[in-house]
Design brief:
With 205 residues, this protein is mainly alpha-helical. The chain has one domain. 75% of the residues lie in helices and 0% in strands. The protein is built from 10 helices and no strands. Helix 5 crosses helix 8, helix 7 (125-132) crosses helix 8 (136-148) and helix 9 packs antiparallel against helix 10. The relative contact order is 0.15.
């Protein structure tokens, strides 16, 4: 009974709480998160006009950013260089990014709303890749199944995070170095509440 109650509490939806906790996390270690955001944004900006930027970089960087945030959630200090660990999952990260980008592009052509739904459905794919070591399709399907259980709320989360990043772009583009880590932190916290991150294995003494 206690385990069922704990599981029920784990899966409660609270968008405001997720964003508030993400805000607290990012502002508590603002310097590290700004550097992470700067790395993410600059690399994508530099490579955005090429196939490399669109398909070979964004996926691994996103997986890497989730990795860093999950480690922070486990109580570890942020190591900015760990964002590169997303490239350890290169094939899964790249293939999932290609498919999600394709599905989203088709969705946005079909009157925008389907594109937003696609973005919401697969928002946790990078998290499943790094946390559960899923391949690209398995991660996408796992994300879709989780989101489908709370579709309206998670579409709303995707819209809110999109709006937050749009505001970051309006702030001379500089604001995104803050809003990108904030958005990833909110998604990571949502993932933890809905799925649960793996606890580190205790070393035998």
């Amino acid at each position: 009974m206690a385990e069922e109650k704990q599981e029920l509490e784990k899966k409660q939806i609270n968008l405001g709480n997720w964003i508030s906790r993400a805000w607290d996390m990012v502002t508590a270690d603002l310097g590290s998160f700004i550097i992470l955001g700067l790395i993410y944004v600059v690399i994508i900006a530099v490579t955005s006009g090429t196939v490399i930027g669109q398909f070979l970089v964004i996926g691994p960087l996103s997986v890497g950013l989730f990795y860093v945030i999950f480690e922070k959630m486990r109580g570890k200090d942020i190591n900015v260089g760990d964002i590169a660990k997303g490239f350890n999952y290169f094939i899964a990260a790249v293939l999932s990014n290609i498919l999600i980008s394709l599905f989203a592009a088709i969705g946005f052509v079909l009157c925008i709303i389907p594109g937003i739904i696609v973005v919401a459905l697969y928002m946790f794919a990078p998290a499943f890749i790094v946390e559960k070591k899923h391949d690209f399709w398995e991660a996408m399907e796992a994300s879709r199944k989780v989101v489908m259980e709370h579709l309206f709320e998670l579409i709303l989360l995707a819209i809110i995070l999109g709006a937050i990043n749009f505001v970051g772009v309006l702030a001379c583009g500089i604001g995104v170095v803050f809003t990108v880590p904030l958005s990833f932190a909110a998604m990571a916290i949502a993932y933890d509440d809905l799925v649960g991150i793996e606890e580190p294995e205790e070393k035998e003494s």
